Fold this sequence. Notes:
Mean pLDDT: 93
Oligomer: single chain
Number of helices: 11
CATH topology of the domain at 20-26 and 60-110 and 138-217 and 292-324: UDP-N-acetylmuramoyl-L-alanine:D-glutamate ligase
CATH class of the domain at 20-26 and 60-110 and 138-217 and 292-324: Alpha Beta
Amino acid sequence: MPGTAVADPGLDGAARRRFSVVVLGDVRIEVRATLPDVRFTEVSADRLAYAPARAVVGGTAVNMARWAVRYFRRVSVLGRIGDDGFTPVVRRELRRIGARDLLRAEPGAANGVTVMLRDRDRAPDGGPGARLLVAQSDAPDRRISPADIRDAARAIRRADALCCDGYASLAATSRTALRTAMETARAAGTPVLFDLVPHDVDERLPLADALAPLPLADVLVSEVSTLARLLGLPVPATAADVRAMVPALDALVPGRPLWLLRFGPSSLESVLAHRRGELTVDYPSGYRKGEERAGFGDRLTSAELYWWLARRAAGRERRVGARTR
């Protein structure tokens, strides 16, 4: 759609890489598998399944960085990791993808592990199967501290954007670090993008803790179903229903953040972009049946952040030009 990130810069990267971003989040070893012949609901006893499987360096920060490097001139990854045999693998992967390493290694700690299983597509519509995500509960990322953030404050202050997500809200120490990072960015004039995850955050945190990061963000990404549950509203079924949520969003967060709301049958097909007094537009995300789901959200978010930063920079240039004429 013209005038949106899906059209320009597009979903495959930017023709001209601009801006620098710091991505704060989880860094883990991820084991991923898709079970083409198994439905979780059918498993009632031990089963051996041969299926496509792989181990990758992942976590929210690395997964975002893999796409961000296709758009931004500099991408830095900030997080806390372990100190074991996987540590050089993690650092080597950041070098491979072209991201700057701002990781803090915790002496004596093992790196965190996540297992992601997806079962057979739903019949008869062939929709995506269910996802089972098993995340290690005591991983180092849950202990990233305000001191870790202060050590990286210079990079945050000099960046064009800080990207962070709600998984840091799930533990007390990382929740404080998240707030420190967002406040550091705001004080320096660095825009903040916040992804409201996990999608069942309403079941994991008190409402106040789930909503606390929102006023510190300039760009807010969320599935509409997540926001609807947090606000006590019916889950929207149509684009018109999503648009009807706009007054509630404006009341929820002061100022004029850009909301990027995902919706559709699998919460990926469409986006409502809204900024009070500036725009309210919905558009196809580019996600189609058969598209690889893993990473698509990060791909879309990278394109949208680039689009927003470019619009923001162009607006500043126009204002400067008007003053000098």
